[in-house]
Design a protein that fits this description.
The protein is an alpha/beta fold. The chain folds into two domains: about 5-145, 3-Layer(aba) Sandwich (Rossmann fold); about 155-270, LOTUS domain-like (Nucleotidyltransferase, domain 5, 2-Layer Sandwich), CATH 3.30.420. About 35% of the residues lie in helices and about 20% in strands. It is built from nine helices and nine strands. Strand 4, helix 4 and strand 5 (about 120-125) form a beta-alpha-beta unit. The longest helix is centred in the middle third of the chain and has 16 residues, at about 145-160. The two termini are about 25 Å apart.
Length: about 270
């Protein structure tokens, strides 16, 4: 569960953000606190921005008009960066959400974090790694788009079901007989890459108790974000951390679950 309560400025690069996902984008930012600033940057005299015009009043987003002074170029990124610096120095917020897939915002993301502010990014899966890694949290828009995500997940599940057609749907992502981590059957539905269990092991090492060899699932989830800003259980087709950890069997084992507060404790599996 996310417990942060930041005051967040959402800054949208209208040139490469999707208007039809604005509801999901704002909901995603709201998970980390209260959105107090909402601005979008672009040339609203062009047809490219028409889809955004209907969203501005509905979502109380302030449009920042920036003309393209040179053909093939735009000043959107510069305007967003300047505004971000002004907001940063005003001390009005303690977190930023930059909605873009552009690497031009890498520098400003670094600057925000140097000031101790929380930085999250929302963009497509082809977003350059430099910008992604500069954020504390980065969410792929592919998992925010219900129709697109459903189609991707459906295709992935069909592939998983072929060798185990008699198993129930909830067992699709589990492979009991596994000699190597790559045989767990968990694949990132956005990037199409198999899960990196070395990354999960690194996060586990950060939070486990030396005496018991166990770690709380919630602490593991927070540690995973620290080692990989893009980590999200939804990338693997799960809606809860508990279900995701269950799918990691036998690499990890769920030791106990507190029915009162929902806390889950895990440890490395015997076959680890």
């Amino acid at each position: 569960m996310i417990t942060e309560n930041y005051k967040i400025a959402v800054l949208i690069d209208g040139d490469n953000a999707e208007a039809n996902l604005i509801d999901q984008v704002l909901n995603e930012a709201s998970k980390f606190g209260r959105v107090t600033v909402k601005r979008i940057y672009g040339d609203f005299t062009t047809g490219h921005m028409n889809n955004w015009k209907d969203k501005l009043n509905s979502y109380a987003i302030r449009p920042i008009q920036k003309f393209a002074y040179t053909k093939g170029k735009n000043s959107t990124d510069t305007a967003l960066i300047i505004d971000a610096m002004d907001i940063l120095h005003s001390k009005l917020v303690d977190g930023f959400c930059i909605v873009s897939s552009d690497s031009d915002y890498t520098g400003i993301a670094h600057r925000m974090r140097e000031e101790g502010l929380f930085v999250m990014g929302i963009g497509k899966s082809h977003t350059p790694e430099a910008f992604v890694k500069a954020c504390d949290n980065f969410t792929y828009t592919e998992i925010l788009a219900p129709k697109q995500y459903k189609n991707v997940k459906s295709k992935e599940n069909k592939k998983e079901k072929q060798p185990r057609h008699k198993k129930q749907n909830q067992e699709v992502n589990k492979v009991v007989k596994s000699d190597t981590p790559n045989k767990l059957g968990l694949t990132n539905l956005v990037t199409k890459k198999p899960i990196d269990l070395d990354l999960i092991d690194s996060a586990f090492e950060m939070v486990y108790d030396d005496m018991t060899g166990q770690a709380l699932a919630s602490q593991l989830g927070a540690a995973l974000k620290k080692v990989d800003p893009t980590f999200d259980i939804r990338n693997y087709g799960h809606s809860s951390l508990g279900d995701f950890l269950q799918a990691l069997t036998p690499h990890f084992e769920i030791v106990s679950k507190n029915e009162k507060n929902g806390q889950i404790s895990i440890r490395k599996g015997k076959a680890h």
